[in-house]
Write a structure and sequence with these properties.
Layout: E1 4-8, H1 11-22, E2 28-29, H2 35-42, H3 45-57, E3 62-67, H4 75-86, E4 90-95, E5 118-119, E6 122-123, E7 130-131, H5 138-161
Parallel strand pairs: 1-2, 1-3, 3-4, 4-7
Antiparallel strand pairs: 5-6
Helix pairs in contact: 3-4
């Protein structure tokens, strides 16, 4: 049975890329949120967004951060990383900049979203994997992610159990 995971990503920039990963069928992820639903959640302000994230993370064993060019700077992605780790969930990053968006365009490499977090005196970026798929085009990047995502999630859960 596939693991239940929470997908974290920059909605405006990477929703199309994230939907490709979610639809691979390798994991049981949270349901994609529609533009209308996300606007409704945002109208609840910071507290409403936190409550929505908290409810979506409930019952998940891992946070999969789908990393695009702007992911590391997003307030809610950073919240999701911290909450996931603090709640004892596995955390893993997968770079998705090589997947095409709705316009058929790939993106540029983004910063590591785990930079700036610490577990005691240990930087989180030295604990959590920030994985870059192989491939020279969107199709091969997709295949690389599909082939490896299950293993990456299992490794993240095992790593988290050590801390």
């Amino acid at each position: 049975m596939p693991r239940k995971v929470f997908f974290s990503f920059h909605f405006n920039n990477d929703a199309w890329r994230a939907s490709q990963v979610r639809s691979m069928g390798a994991l049981e992820g949270d349901e994609p949120v529609s533009d209308n639903k996300w606007e409704e959640v945002k109208r609840g302000g910071d507290r409403g967004i936190q409550n929505w994230i908290n409810s979506q993370m409930s019952g998940k064993s891992c946070v999969v951060v789908l990393i695009g060019s702007q992911t590391a700077s997003r307030q809610w992605v950073r919240y999701e990383i911290e909450k996931g780790w603090n709640d004892g969930k596995g955390v893993v990053g997968i770079r998705i900049h090589g997947l095409k968006n709705v316009s058929g365009v790939t993106d540029v490499w983004g910063a590591n979203p785990f930079d700036g977090f610490n577990v005691g005196n240990v930087p989180l970026n030295s604990i959590v994997t920030c994985w870059n798929p192989s491939g020279y085009d969107s199709k091969s990047v997709y295949a690389s992610i599909k082939e490896n995502i299950g293993r990456l999630v299992e490794e993240a859960i095992a790593t988290r159990a050590k801390y």
